Task: structure prediction
Amino acid sequence: MTATIGHNQPPADEAVFTEITDLFDEAKNWADGEPIDSDEMHDAITKLKDGLHEAGKRAEELRVAEKAPIIKAGKDVDAKFKPYSTKVEQGKKALSDLLAAWRKKKADELAAEAKRKADLAAAEMEAAQAAIRETSGNLTARVDAEEQLSYAKDLEKNAKRAGKAATTGLGLRTIWHADITDAAAALDWAFEQDAAAFTDMATEMAQRAVRGGKRDIPGFRIWDEQVAR
Result:
């Protein structure tokens, strides 16, 4: 078979990987802890750095090109399923709203009934205790009062069961939310919870401001340094 031009060349990615590895090994020889001591050394290191940069650009282009069909395939799969996953979420949301309204209505009814029973039990207990206090020396009245007290205790138990039934097994769950009403107090609380994360966030905000030209930020020291291009 007649060899074509470039037939024996390695794949582009392997070639650039080899180039980067060789340049990196050379960089390790130069970056050995000793500073630059001549213009010639400076120029050689500059050339090496530029070579690494260009090889890195080619590697990035190859990476993007190789990954592109994979990303497209993933997007195609997402697009294929998206209409149906959207229907699922929309349908569930609509049905959940219907169920929540009905279950809330039932919960309110049960809560009202539980309160009615609790109020009845409390009134009966108060009456029974008053009757007992008034039975001094009257055995028959005492027996009647004890029966009334027993009945009041039964009502209390029944009211507790009704109260439990009004708050459990209804298919509802409680979700708690937090809205800021005092920004200063909220920031103080957040700092106390995670000072490091809060400081990182403030530092990133300051860095963006400095990159945008800000040179005076309360609580920050603004400084500069010279780095190689």
Notes: Residues 182-221 form one domain.
